[in-house]
Every structure is written in C-alpha cells, then in structure tokens.
C-alpha cells in the first residue's frame, strides 16, 4: 500500500498510534521515503490495542488535566519516532470557552517543550467542533495566537447541515448571507497549518463520491475553503499540507446487508480529490504571491 501511496505522488502519510505501533510499520514508512504526521486523540486509550482496534477507547475523560497529560504522552512518542507534526483530536465539545482556552495554553507549552508542531483538528466531539465555538475560543486571544489548526470543514458542514460562505451554499436557502463566515475564515487563514480535504454534505461528513454530479456544489464549496486556507499558508511561506481524507465505513456509506461493502472505491475518491487540488494548486501559488 505504501508503494501505491508513493506512486500516486504523496509525500507523507497520517497514521494513528494504533497503526504506527504495529510491528514494522515505521520501518516501512522510512523505506518508502515518506514522512509521517502522527494522529493522536487526547484522553484516548490505545495501549495494548492491536490492528483490529478492539479495546480502543476514543475518549475517556472530560478533565482538562487528563487531556493535557494524554497529549504530552502521545506527542512525545510522535516526536521520538520522527513524525514531522502531530494532528490532534483535542479536548471535549462540551467544555466551556475558558476550559478550552486553558487546554490550548497548556498545549502550546507542550508544543514548545517537545519541539514538534501540534495541529488541533476541527473535528466533531472535540473542542473545535463547529465554527462558532472556534471563533469564540480564538478571536481576540493574543495568548493563543500560536495555536495551530488542522481544518476539516466537512465536520462543520454536517454540524450546520449545509455548506456556507460560498454561492453554492445559497441554493434552496432563504438566507443568502452567513455574516459570521468572513471572521471565521480569517481565523482559519491565521491558524491553519494543515487541511483534511474531504467533501462533506448537509447530512454527513463525507459524500458517497466527490466526483458525482449530484455533489458538484459541495465540491465547489470545499475547494473554495481549501483554496482560501492554502493561499494563506503559501503567503506565509509554509509548506501546505493537504491530505485527501475520504475514509472507509462508517464515513463511507455502505450497501445494506453486505458486511459494510462501500458504495464507492475509497482510493478513487481520494485520488479524485488529489487531482482536483493538484490542478488548481499552481494558480493558488501564483495568486498567493501577488
């Protein structure tokens, strides 16, 4: 599989601790010449969990201290194995704004101590689970200016039950203006260092096939989001990390009564997204430099 990844032109892979801890995986990544982005889930239980992931617990605590302790442990391991960055499912959706800020202040200390960048993903069940929470946590907070995000807007699309901030979002909606969008996008431009490029829709975080004509509007909206964030990364001189992230069941819809057979090939979905980004990326680079 890793050779297929390399042949497709990818430079890195993202893996969760359960996977990178499997025998031979890190050697295989190095032999393939790929970089590793380490995915971690704060307060998760992954010790002793095998390839079948039985026994894994995604979140075990609501306490800020537990999430910081977990982040430090997992990010330390990521640093030790040579990961170029950490992508973290951080915190709890039900935290207060001040609890979220307390966690992020602690996370910045951990990031500085370890010397590895930590990106906090805009993921459901976690502290950046919707655009309004994200705005309220970060806006005007100079002590959080160095917080880094991984933008996966597909999660926000399903939470809000619509795409937003783009002309494709206005079809069938009586309100053609999202007055909060520009402020939130400006925050994403400031804080995002990575993009999970998955196309969501009103009723789920992942369309069945991003190339299907019935999802053309969702694709255009997501390409618009990715373009804005990527241009900001480029303008700041950052390496733009864009990862197609269409995943298997339960993200991918399955055919009923078929032992979860996917309705569309996941590799084809991700390859399609990759090609869409590759086609537009030179223009983004040119326009970001103007």
Approximately how much beta-strand content do the residues carry? 5-15%
Q: What's the number of helices?
A: 10
Give the CA-CA distance, first to last residue.
39 Å
Largest sheet: 7 strands, parallel
Spatial strand sequence of the major β-sheet: 1-2-3-4-5-6-7
- Helix fraction, binned, reads 40-55%
Shape by Cα distribution: globular
Query: How many whole angstroms does the radius of gyration measure?
Result: 19 Å
Task: Give the number of DSSP strands.
Answer: 9
If you average the pLDDT, what whole number results?
Answer: 94
Low-confidence stretches are none
N-to-C SSE series? HEHHEHEHEHEHHEHEEEH
Helix/strand/pairing class, anyone?
alpha/beta
Task: Please characterize this protein's 3D structure.
The structure is a single chain. This protein has 290 residues and is of the alpha/beta class. 42% of the residues lie in helices and 13% in strands. The protein is built from ten helices and nine strands. The strands form two sheets. It has a seven-stranded parallel beta sheet with strand order 1-2-3-4-5-6-7. Strands 8-9 form a two-stranded antiparallel sheet. A hairpin with a 5-residue loop joins strand 8 and strand 9. Helix 4 packs parallel to helix 5.
List keywords for this structure.
single chain, 290 residues, seven-stranded parallel beta sheet, 9 strands, globular
């Amino acid at each position: 599989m890793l050779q297929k990844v390399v042949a497709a032109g990818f430079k890195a892979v993202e893996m969760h601790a359960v996977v990178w801890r499997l025998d031979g995986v890190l050697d295989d990544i190095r032999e393939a010449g790929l970089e590793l982005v380490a995915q971690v889930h704060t307060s998760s239980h992954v010790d002793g969990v095998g390839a079948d992931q039985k026994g894994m617990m995604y979140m075990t605590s609501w306490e800020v201290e537990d999430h910081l302790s977990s982040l430090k442990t997992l990010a330390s391991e990521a640093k030790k194995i040579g990961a170029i960055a950490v992508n973290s499912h951080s915190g709890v959706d039900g935290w207060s704004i001040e609890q979220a800020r307390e966690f992020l202040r602690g996370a910045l200390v951990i990031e500085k101590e370890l010397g590895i960048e930590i990106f906090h993903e805009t993921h459901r069940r976690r502290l950046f689970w919707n655009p309004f929470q994200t705005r309220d946590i970060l806006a005007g907070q100079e002590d959080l200016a160095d917080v880094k995000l991984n933008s996966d807007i597909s999660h926000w699309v399903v939470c809000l039950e619509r795409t937003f901030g783009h002309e494709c979002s206005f079809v069938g909606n009586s309100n053609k203006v999202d007055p909060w969008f520009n402020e939130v996008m400006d925050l994403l431009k400031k804080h995002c260092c990575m993009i999970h490029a998955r196309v969501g829709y009103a009723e789920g975080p992942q369309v069945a096939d991003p190339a299907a004509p019935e999802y053309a509007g969702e694709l255009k909206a997501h390409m618009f989001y990715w373009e804005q964030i990527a241009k900001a990364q480029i303008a700041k001189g950052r390496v733009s990390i864009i990862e197609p992230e269409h995943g298997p069941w339960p993200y991918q819809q399955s055919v009923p009564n078929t032992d979860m057979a996917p309705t569309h090939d996941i590799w084809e979905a991700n390859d399609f997204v990759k090609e869409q980004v590759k086609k537009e990326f030179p223009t983004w680079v040119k326009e970001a430099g103007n």
